[in-house]
Amino acid sequence: MTDQNSAIKFYSGEQIPVELHKVRIVQKLFLKPIEERKAAMEEAGFNTFLLSTKDVFLDMLTDSGTNAMSDNQVSSMLQADDAYAGSQSFYRMERALRDVFGKHYVLPAHQGRAAENIVSQAFIKKGDVIPMNYHFTTTKEHMELNGGKVLEIFADDALEIKSSKLFKGNIDIEKLKAVFKEYGKERVAFVRMEASTNLIGGQPFSMQNMRDVKKVCDENETMMVLDASLIGENAYFIKQREEEFKNANIKDILLEMCSYADLVYFSSRKVSSTRGGGIVTNSKDLYMKMRDLLVLYEGFLTYGGMSVREIEAMAVGINETCDETVISQSPSFIAYAVNQLDAAGIPVITPPGALGCHVDAKGFLPHVPQAEYPAGALASALFIISGIRGMERGTISSVRDENGDDILADVELLRLAFPRRVFTLSQTMFVVDRVKWLYDNRELIGGLEWVEEPPLLRFFMGRLKAKTDWPEKLLAKFKKDFGESL
Ligand code: F0G
């Protein structure tokens, strides 16, 4: 039963994302009173990363390591073979990865950024450039630590919030050719394509674009690296949006995507709903350049920093990523939320993508200057009024330049992640409802300023505070409208 997705047509004509799974293990949630939510947000320095889950109602921070696991995944964990070297669990995972990605050599790593570390150390030297559709935070840091420079060569209109462009994650081929002309192929370490491009709103690239990028790479004898953390969802969008693939099965789409890449790496926290990561390739030469680094940083070749239980679950999970009912679930719920918010005139990234619903904080809070972090303010405000934890993906997630000034982010987003098969439709309706209320009361929300700003990846651990008493005003209005209701 692979040719199915979870948006089902109702008698009313509406397309409703129906859960094609049933809930068998549950975790109790708490929706605390708004006064406690506000206190928790203040204690967390207006940084949703620093909240404790005991205070969170719907945890939409990320889909990383938080997708629901299947019954088959959980049961596979019981047969794990604990061994430092030669574990049977590893061989089962290796077989599964070879089958799904079509690559022979498999290097396990404890998570995606560990794979980025190995790939960056092995293939980037000082002065190199790495063209890509868009950066991811940890990817960029690893590349820069190794002396590389990230070049983002997306199409000019890829960052438009409201758009009908189906493949905003595409690399602009003319810009790619221009990179080779300007720097020469010797300085291009590799070309990186990120599936379901995270920081521009989970936006996919097309298969045609991969073919075009591959052609330019071949002409310049340069390798193509694929970040496959969200490849399942990208494959689903290819099937939905690219005419040639409308009758293709997901497994074939995945195999074709990977066939264009010389090296594929991934966070399995996303792609296979487990906690780990890895690198795969068909080139013995590339494998040998990474192998010893892997042992140094991650652990022996047959576990790479992962527990054998997670390795077993990964072998099962990567196969489930070929099941359309699994990989369509998050995009269908995201589409539901995005379409509802869009219809209410709330600025959200369209078309709906993978990973989450992305609210445009600049459009939502035009009165909050970018230097006062509108996406961070919006994330804090939403938590206070709902217990929903989203993630800032804007200037707080950016860095400062050499003069110490903020590099203002291209887009200021509040990301509300939809981990696979975690939230129900009524919870999704609650999200839509509270974002609508917040939009109607948006003028109450003000900006943020730093209290404690770490120099590296400041968004993870940094602390901020409200510039005015806007949280109190928001609380008062919430109480006026909702009374004692949570
Ligand atoms: N590549 C992409 C495209 C990612 O989205 C992530 C993580 C990584 C690499 C790093 O993987 O977390 O396993 O080390 N994204 C998470 C997120 C953190 O919330 O979007 P990791």
Automatic annotation (TrEMBL):
Instruction: Give the record's family classification.
Output: Belongs to the beta-eliminating lyase family.
What is this protein's name?
A: Tryptophanase
What highest taxon heads this organism's lineage? Bacteria
One Gene Ontology MF term: carbon-carbon lyase activity
Q: Which residues carry this modification: N6-(pyridoxal phosphate)lysine?
A: K270
Whether Lyase counts among this entry's keywords is yes
Give the InterPro entries listed for this entry: ArAA_b-elim_lyase/Thr_aldolase, Beta-eliminating_lyase, PyrdxlP-dep_Trfase, PyrdxlP-dep_Trfase_major, PyrdxlP-dep_Trfase_small
According to its UniProt entry, the protein's GO biological process terms are:
aromatic amino acid metabolic process
Keyword terms:
Lyase, Pyridoxal phosphate
Domain Aromatic amino acid beta-eliminating lyase/threonine aldolase, which positions?
59-431
| Pfam families with a match to the protein in the record | Beta_elim_lyase
Q: Which cofactor does it need?
A: pyridoxal 5'-phosphate
Q: Where is the signal peptide?
A: none
